[in-house]
Structures are given as C-alpha cells and as structure tokens.
Design brief:
This protein has about 700 residues and is α+β, with helices and mostly antiparallel strands. The protein has 3 domains: about 120 residues, Immunoglobulins (Immunoglobulin-like); about 500 residues, Glycosyltransferase, CATH 1.50.10.10; about 70 residues, Immunoglobulin-like. The protein is about 30% helix and about 15% strand. It is built from 15 helices and 24 strands. The strands form 6 sheets. Strands 2, 4, 5, 7, 8 and 9 form a 6-stranded mixed beta sheet that branches. Strands 10, 11, 12, 13, 14 and 15 form a 6-stranded mixed beta sheet that branches. The protein has a 4-stranded antiparallel beta sheet with strand order 21-20-23-24, with no helix packed on it. α3 packs parallel to α6. The longest helix is centred in the middle third of the chain and has 20 residues.
Length: about 700
C-alpha cells in the first residue's frame, strides 16, 4: 500500500490525498502459487494501465516485468466509501525477487516492495508461528503452582485437580479451553485439542521443512506438551473437563462450563464429542503414534498413556451419546454436525493408532451420517431437521478435513479393489466411500462457487448461514446467533478453509488446480495484509499490524506469530465491513474493550494457519488410488434403488446380481438375487441398527432398521 495508507487509519484513506491504495500479502508470495494485488482508487481505473517492475536496492523502479490494463472496478457489499477495488492477477510463474506495481492513472502511485520467493510463507512465518505456541504455553503466572490445584466448580466437598500445561486461549484471556460456547450448541470451536492434533499433523506431514526452521521447540515437543495437558483434563470416570476458566481475569480459576458474555459458570463441565471431547481423543490417538522412547506424562513409564486415555474417553462418550439418540453432555440433549465430524476424527485416528476394526466401523457410520448432511446446494446442514445451515467462525474447514482424513484411511490400496464395472453406468462404487466422496466433491465445489458467484476482488471465502429467520449467502458471520453476544473476525475460518481445500485437492488428486490454489491462497493473503484495511494480522511481520490487546494478562500476551481475530461484518446479519471501530459497530463509547472482536489474538487462528502451511507444503501427500475412469475423483451413485418400508426391503436394479444385507463389520446376515431386476427381503428377525445393502457390481447403501 502507499505511504499515506500506512500512516493513517482506513477512514482517512478515503481522503483526496490517498487516490490509489495497494493491498497485497505483506509476508510474501510463493513463486509457484497465484499472485494477485488489489488496488483501491477513487478514480475510474477501468481500461487504464498498470505495470510490474523489478524493485531496485535504492527503492526506485527497475526493468518492466509485466503490464496490463485494469478490468471493471468492484465494491462488494459496499465495503468501500472511496471508489472501487481493482484486481491485478499476476499468475503463478513469476521469478523469485522483489517487485513494485505502478499505476499511472489519476495521481501516479507506486506500491511498496512486494516479495516473491520459493516457499515464501514458510520462510517468513513458519518459525514465528511455532514460536507463538511455545511462548503461549500456560506456564507464565505470578502465582506459584499455577493450575496445580484448580477447583472443580460445584464440587462438595471441594475437589481440586492438577491441570497444568496447555496454552492460554487468547491475548486477553488466560483461561484454557477444550471448547466453549457449548450453551449455543452450534458454535463450539475446537481449541487446545485442535492445536495438539494440528501440531501432530504438521510433525508428520512437513518434517523436513520444520527441521530447517529455527524455532524454540519442535512440533513434536509442542504436541506432547499439549497432550500431557489433555491427559490431566481427563477425569477418572472417562470424561474430559471442558475449561479452566478465570472469568476473564477475575483471578479465581475453576474447572467448569460457562455461558454468555458475563461468563456465568456452571457444573456442566463434561465434554460431549462436540465440546472438545472428540478432538481431544483424536489428538491423543494421533500423538500416541510417535512417542516411542519419548518421556510421557509426569515421567510415568508407560509410553501408551495417550492412547489409553483416548480409548477410555471414547468408550465413555460412546455410552453417553449416539446418532439419533440422546446426548447426555450436550446442552440441548441431542447431537449435531459438530458431534459428527469430531467423533469421526476420533474414531478414524483411533483406528489408525490401534487397527481395531471397531473404530473403523464407527468411523464408517459417522462418515455416512456426516455425508448425509450435505444439502442440494453443497453446504452442510447443522441439525437433523435440516433447517440450519452449517457455518462456523473458526472451524469451517473441519467437516471437509474429517471426511478426507477418513477417506485416506478407508480407501483401497489398489485401483483394482474399487469394484468397477463396465455394465449399466460404466462407473465404480465402494460400499463406504461412494457417498463420502460424493459429499466431499459437492462441498468442495460449493465452497469455491459460492465465493466466486459475486463481486469479490479479494477472493474472501463466502458462506451460507441463517440470519433473521432467513438463509442467505454472505461474507461474514451474522451477529444474531445462538450465543447472543459472540461474533468476531474470522481469520481461523479462512485458514481452515485454505487448509481443507488444498488437503482435499492433494488427497483426491483433483483437476483444475487454478481455482483451488487461488481460493486457498486468497484466504492467507487476506490474513497477511491483502484486505481492505491493509493490515497484516500476524504480529511480527508486515507493514502494519493490529494494536496490542493484552486484556488482564500479567505477561506480554500479544505474541509474535499470533494472529488477531480480524475483520468482521458490520451489520447484525453480517453485512458490510468493519475493523477495530467499536463506534462503527454500534457499541457505546464507554465499551472500548469490545475491540477484542478484531485485534485480540486467539489460539485457533495460529493453529489453523499452521495447518494451512502443513497442507500447502505437504511432503507426504499421497493421492488416493482412485480409478482412472472417474473424472475428478467423483464416484457416481450406482444405478439401483433400495427402499425400506417398515421391515420389508425392496431392491430394484437392472440385471440378476446378488444382493447381500450386511452388518457394518462385514458379516452377511441375508442374501437374495435380483429376478427381473427386483428382489424383496423380509428383515423381521433382525435387531434394530444400521445395515448395509450391497448389490454386486453396483455398490452399497446404508439402511437404518428400527
């Protein structure tokens, strides 16, 4: 951006002195990824020329590299009061180097230096992010024995637990969360467990890159440190405590749950799958795979303590909640999509760690149920009634991540094992992966399509949500949601979607890399400065950073590598745009503390950013062995109709194929054959439950027998 935009707030950028403003990734662009710059101007730049130069050591412009003309200006959702935004797309093949962009129209202006390099984001930010985790460890306090004896809220007689470790949640909050917002049911973020799982993922997927990065601690060390905390948060009964909460600086710390803006504490501290339990299980199971020879919790000898804790917690939660049944620890007593994707990750990681097929069968049921939540448009439904679209301010990419992770584990080892047939449809079917891959593809396409369907010069990931009793597409989450107070910038959401789409692309070996690379890159560019305020949200790098927000912390809580919440919508329905301006957002002048919504650093932002880097630079990416005949890895539904009326099963399909009814562990409980394209089976003698109906050569379908 130009000098004036660096020195003054965005509101002053609307003055006549700031004709052109340049917005770009201030940390640098990867040389093999899309490079784009946005110019804001009060002049009409359509049809006028821009020029890309090599930058010289003296700061003057060097040789011309590329030039072009601006297209039509855009102003998405009235974001700008100072003209329009114009996009410069520079492709993904520029040589490493330093560049300037110049615009001759109106008041001639030139951007600051723009850097392009091999693995630019890894070089400039990976070490910062890893150090953020180390420096955010919850071991800084003026109180001796901090968290060694924390009271269990409501216990009588008073019970305390040693819950040392973990990471502080935010620069203004020294509490520690497996999750929170549980009373809102649909908003649970995954916090410390997600960080542990992500560190383990990074340690496995980018080991060479991490080893070449100078940091205070390795990803493995940090993952083990976080896993120790999770084990301490596991009660002997088998549930995890949800939070170590100090009511935002009140000084008294409790193991509890809380609700609302005032932090009203309660004893509903047991975690359901969606309340941190599922991710904690997944994290412990994943960490358990690489701790051979490593020190375990508090020096105990067993190197399986993480896996033991994960299995104990999974068994306990499996007794407390189920698909379509009650959920003992859920505030509304029933499961939703967050239970599905966290339980799916838990079962999948447990299967990988143990090879126990019970966990694989559980993962199959969860994956199918999650896939069944896909809407006709391609977004997920949050609730079983399919009335509330799934949207999430921090974990929007996690359903896709869970399904693709499951597909990695479920996929046959060979293309020859997919059950392909050239008869009828000429497609392939897999009894478990067919519906999952279809849902993955549909959601993946929707994410990109809904983002590109309107004026969107920054490529900001759009979403579908329920607001004011209407379903709408928009840029930012609505302020009117189930929490009654919680909304903020969405940098974690953006990074999660960047990570999830690239992970999907790499794993399924999809085509059309241009669209997904641009989508994934645009989200990280926004975080790192290519946004309408020219603010790099990561502390420690960039031309302009958010102000510090330390809240009531007793240490310097705004850390390098930490990422601020970010830019939000202005209106109650998420419309408009606002950054670090409590008055513009409608708050009274005596509530300046509400600027936490924009400038406060939060653990999930850096966690998802790490995942975005781990998937971008994945050294272990192994595409699934999909049949070559299947375009874009989408498995078509088999040409058959399976219908259950009461306990009578009807199967209709062409041919005379054999029909099998199976339990989820593969045991065949009934057989028949198609006769003139039809088979009818009575299931009166079978127990209620989930079964698979398989038609040879045509695939399988799940049925629920009541």
């Amino acid at each position: 951006m130009n000098t004036i935009c660096k020195l003054f707030p965005f509101a002053l950028a609307a003055s006549a002195f700031a004709t052109n403003a340049f917005f770009y990734n201030q940390a640098g662009y990867d040389s093999d990824k899309p490079v784009s710059i946005v110019v804001q101007s009060s002049d009409n730049l359509e049809g006028t020329e821009w020029t890309l130069f090599f930058a010289t050591d003296g700061g003057t412009t060097g040789a011309t590299v590329k030039s072009g003309t601006f297209g039509k200006g855009e102003n998405p959702d009235n974001w700008s009061t100072n003209g329009k935004f114009y996009t410069i797309d520079l492709g993904s093949s520029l040589k490493a180097g330093k560049y300037n962009v110049s615009v001759a129209a109106g008041s001639p202006s030139t951007s600051d230096i723009i850097t392009i390099a091999d693995k630019a984001l890894a070089t400039s930010t990976l070490g910062l992010v890893m150090d953020y985790f180390y420096n955010d460890r919850a071991d800084k306090s003026p109180i001796v024995g901090w968290d060694q004896k924390v009271t269990v809220y409501g216990s009588s007689p008073t019970t305390t637990r040693d819950v040392r470790g973990g990471w502080y949640d935010a620069s203004g909050d020294v509490s520690k969360y497996l999750s929170h917002l549980s009373y809102a049911n649909y908003l649970n973020p995954q916090q410390i467990p997600l960080t542990v799982w992500s560190l383990a993922f990074a340690a496995e997927r980018i080991p060479t890159l991490l080893a070449s990065t100078s940091t205070q601690a390795t990803a493995t060390e940090e993952a083990l440190y976080g896993a120790d905390f999770l084990v301490r948060m596991l009660d002997e009964q088998g549930f995890f405590y949800m939070t170590v909460f100090d009511n935002w600086g009140s000084g008294s710390r409790y193991l509890c749950a809380f609700s609302g803006e005032k932090g009203t504490k309660s004893a509903n501290y047991q975690t359901a799958f969606r309340e941190g339990g599922g991710m904690a299980i997944a994290a412990l199971a994943r960490v358990s795979k690489f701790i051979s020879g490593a020190p375990s919790v508090d020096g105990k000898a067993s190197t399986n303590i993480y896996l033991e804790a994960a299995e104990k917690a999974y068994a306990h939660l499996s007794e407390k909640q189920s698909i379509g049944g009650a959920c003992a620890y859920c505030d509304d007593g029933k499961e939703n999509i967050i239970d599905d994707y966290t339980a799916l990750l838990a079962a999948t990681e447990l299967y990988v760690a143990t090879q126990n097929t019970t966990y694989l069968n559980d993962a199959r049921v969860r994956a199918q149920h999650l896939a069944d939540r896909i809407s006709a448009d391609g977004y997920f439904w949050s609730d079983d009634a399919k009335k509330r679209p799934y949207w999430h301010a921090s974990d929007a990419g996690l359903p896709l991540f869970a399904l693709v992770r499951y597909a990695e584990v479920e996929a046959p080892v060979s293309k020859d094992d997919w059950g392909c047939t050239t008869s009828l449809t000429g497609t392939c079917a897999h009894p478990y992966l067919t519906p999952v891959l279809d849902a993955i593809q549909k959601h993946y396409n929707w994410l990109i399509n809904v983002t590109n369907s309107v004026e969107n010069p920054f490529g900001y990931a759009r979403q579908t949500y329920l607001t004011q009793n209407k379903i709408k597409d928009g840029f930012f989450i609505p302020h009117d949601n189930e929490s009654n107070y919680w909304w903020q910038g969405e940098d974690a959401r953006l990074a999660s979607l960047s990570a999830a789409t690239i992970y999907t692309y790499n794993t399924l070996n999809l085509k059309n890399s241009t669209d997904v690379n641009k989508y994934a890159t645009d989200q990280l560019d926004w975080i790192l400065g290519k946004n309408p305020y020219g603010v790099c949200m990561m502390n420690g790098i960039g031309k302009k950073n958010p102000d510090k927000y330390d809240g009531t912390s007793d240490y310097d809580a705004t850390l390098k590598g930490g990422i601020a919440n970010g830019i939000s919508g202005k209106g109650i329905d998420g419309s408009g745009i606002v950054w670090d301006n409590v008055a513009a957002a409608g708050f009274p002048a005596d509530e300046p503390w509400n600027n936490w919504r924009w400038i406060e650093q939060w653990l999930p932002h850096s966690t998802w950013y790490l995942m975005a880097l781990a998937t971008r630079y994945d050294e272990k990416a192994a595409p699934l062995p999909l049949p070559a005949a299947i375009p874009n890895a989408r498995i078509a539904a088999p040409a058959m109709d399976i219908h259950l009326q009461g306990r009578t099963l009807s199967v209709n399909a062409a041919g005379n194929a054999k029909v099998r009814v199976m339990r989820l562990d593969g045991t065949v409980v009934a057989t028949s054959s198609l006769s003139s394209g039809r088979a009818v089976l009575s299931l009166n003698k079978f127990q209620s439950g989930i079964y698979l109906v398989k038609v040879d050569g045509l695939g399988a379908k799940k049925i629920a027998l009541k």
